[in-house]
Amino acid sequence: MNTMFATTRATPRRLRRPLWPRVAAVGFGLIGLGSVMQLMPADTPGRDYWPWLVLAGIGVLAGLVGVWWHRRGGSAGVVTRWAARGQRHHGLASPWAILRVASGFAMRRRAVVLRPSLRAVGWGARWWVSTRQLATPLARVGWLRVWSAIEDVTLRIGGPRTGKTGELCCRILDAPGAVIATSTRTDLIELTGPCRARLGPVHIFNPSGIAGMASTITFDPLSGCADPATATARAADLLAATSAPGHGGDREFWASQARRVLAALLHAAALGNASMRDVLAWVADPDTAAPEVHRLLRRSPQPAYESDAGQFLATNERTRSSICSTIMPALGWLTDATAAAAADKGDFDVAQLLEDCGTVYMLGAEDAQTAPLVTALTGHIARQARRIAATQPGGRLDPPLTLALDEAALICPIPLDNWTADMGGRNVTIHIAAQSRAQLRQRWGDTGAAAILNNAATLLIFGGSRDPDDLAAYSTLTGERYEHTPTWDDDGALSSLSRHRIPVLTPAQIAQLPARHVVIIRRGMAPAVGTVQMAWKRSEVRAARRAAAWGECTLRWATEWERWSDRFEEWIATTEVRGVSLAQWLGITLPPRPRPPEPTPATSSDFDGSHA
C-alpha cells in the first residue's frame, strides 16, 4: 500500500443504518406469521391469535407509512428531495418538471381559468381547442416545449442581433386576440403583418415617419380628457416618456407638480375643444393663458383642477419656469410635422380593436421625441382594455390582448413595474424585450427594474452579454450543483474523489451561448437551456412570402404578356402581304385598341391609406 496515501487517508466514520427497513421487516414478519398460523390445524396451541398478529403487522406498516409521509412533507424532506433531484439532473429542469409545470398539458389544466368562455364547453370538447389559444410556446428543450400561459409576463434580455426580435415576432403570430406591437424598425410589420391581416385589421401608428410609412390611424392625446381621471392618466403617460427615473428629492417633486399642471391644462383644453398646440402655447406663456384657462376649468366637475391651475399661474417665476421646463419635453413632438399629423384628430376605439382581433404596430425613433405619443396611445389602449375586462366573466379579456414591446425602454416607457403585476390577471399578456438589466434600471430605476424582473413569470436570457454584474446575477438565478473532482497520486492512481458546489451555469457559459439558444428561468421550475424559433423560419411566414413573391411574379408576367401582345397586334396591323395588311390576308379582325385615359389631378379624397 502506498505509505503517503495511507497517512493522508481520513478515518472512516461509522454510518448509522436507517431504521425503517427493520421496522418494515417486523411488520411483514408479523403478517406472515399470522398467515402461517391461520393455515395450521385448529387444535394447534395459539392458533386463535393469528388475527391479532396480522392486525399488529398492518399497524406497524401503517405507522411506518405515516411517519414516512410526515417526514416527506416536512421542510427537511422537501429540501432533501430538491437536493437529490438537482443532483440527478445537474441542477437543471428534468423532463418531468417541464411536463408538470410548463407543458401544453399543464396549460390545458387551467383552460377554464385562462379562457372563461370555455366553461360553457364540455370537458371533452376542450381538448379540441388549440393550445395556442391558452398559451404560447417560448422554446424547445429536447423534444419538449416550454409554454407560457396567456396570463403570464415574459421578459427576454439580450444584446443587439441576438434574436430577440425574431423570437418576439413569434409571440405576435401566436396571439389569439388583439395585439399591440412596438418597435424601432419595420421588420415586425414585414414578418407578421401579412399573417396578422388574415385574423383581423392591421393598423400602423408611425409618428416618427420611419421608412416613409404613413400612419393609418391617428390619436389625439386630448381625446377623453374631458373626464378628470383620464386627463390625469394621460398627463402621467406623456411625462413618463421624458422624465428620468428615481424617487425622492427635487426630481420627484417637480415631476409631481408637472403632472398636476399638465393634467389641468389637458382637462381645460378638452372642455374648450382646444388643441394640443393650444396647450403648448399655454405652457410657453402662462400669463397670457391665465384668463382662458380659468374660464374653461370653471366647467369642470372637479374644482381641484382649477385650484391646481390657479396655483401654477399665480406662483413665482422661478417655480413656474421649473414646472414648464419639466412639461415642455413631453410636448416636443408638436414641432415635428409628421408626429403632429399623427396626433391631429381621432379617438382610437379599443372595444372595436378587441372585437375584431386587430393589430396595431407602433413605430418610434430612438431619439425619444415621439415617445410621449406612443406611450400615451399604449396607455390608452391598456387602460380601456382593463376597464372592459372588468365587465367580462372572471374579470378577464376573452380573447386576450397581447402587448409585444420590443425596445420598450426606448420608445414606450409605460409603467411596466406596475402593469406586470396587475395586467396578467385581466388577460393582458405582456412580452418585453430589453437589451440588459442596465437598460431597465436606466428607464425605470433600480426599484422598477427589480419589480419587472420579479413579476416576469419567464425570463429568457440570450447570449452575447459582456456585463459582469448581469452575468453574475443570471448565474446566481440558475443555482448551484455538486461536481465530483478526482485526485490522483504520484503513481497515477485515483486517491480520492471530492465534491464541490459550483454554479449550474457559469457566467462564461451564459455569455457564450450559441445562436438561438437561451437560458430559461421559469417560475416553479429549475432552469433549462433551450432553443427558440425565429419568425422567418415559421411555415406561415414562409407561405406569406411565397404568396407575395408569386403575386409579384404573376403581375410581372401579365405586364410582359400585355406588352408583347400589343407589339404583336401592331406588327400584324402594319405588315402588308401582296398589298394587303397581314391581318386582312389572314382573316383576323383586331379589336379596337382603347384610348388611354386622360390624366386627372389627384385629390386628397382618393387616398385611403390602404397601401401603407
In brief:
By secondary structure, the chain is α/β, with parallel strands linked by helices. A nine-stranded mixed sheet has the order 5-6-4-7-8-3-9-12-13, with helices on both faces.
Helix content: 40-55%
Number of helices: 26
Looking across the biggest beta sheet, what order are the strands in? 5-6-4-7-8-3-9-12-13
Question: What is the residue-mean pLDDT, rounded to a whole number?
Answer: 83
Low-confidence parts: 1-11, 601-612
Structural notes for this entry:
The structure is a single chain. α12 crosses α14. The protein has 26 helices and 15 strands. It has a nine-stranded mixed beta sheet, sandwiched between helices. It has a two-stranded antiparallel sheet with strand order 1-2. Strands 10-11 form a two-stranded antiparallel sheet. β1 (135-141) and β2 (144-149) form a beta hairpin. The longest helix has 36 residues, at 539-574. 34% of the residues are buried. The termini are far apart. 50% of the residues lie in helices and 13% in strands. By secondary structure, it is of the alpha/beta class.
Core attributes:
single chain; 612 residues; alpha/beta; 9-stranded mixed sheet; two-stranded antiparallel sheet; 26 helices; 15 strands; disordered N terminus
Helix and strand layout, with pairings?
Elements: H1 3-8, H2 20-38, H3 50-73, H4 75-88, H5 95-101, H6 104-108, H7 111-114, H8 123-126, E1 135-141, E2 144-149, E3 154-157, H9 164-174, E4 179-183, H10 187-197, E5 202-205, H11 228-240, H12 249-271, H13 276-284, H14 286-297, H15 303-314, H16 317-327, H17 337-342, H18 350-356, E6 359-363, H19 371-389, E7 401-406, H20 408-411, H21 416-422, E8 428-434, H22 437-455, E9 458-462, H23 468-478, E10 480-488, E11 494-503, H24 507-511, E12 517-522, E13 528-531, H25 539-574, E14 576-577, E15 580-581, H26 582-586
Parallel strand pairs: 3-8, 3-9, 4-6, 4-7, 5-6, 7-8
Antiparallel strand pairs: 1-2, 9-12, 10-11, 12-13, 14-15
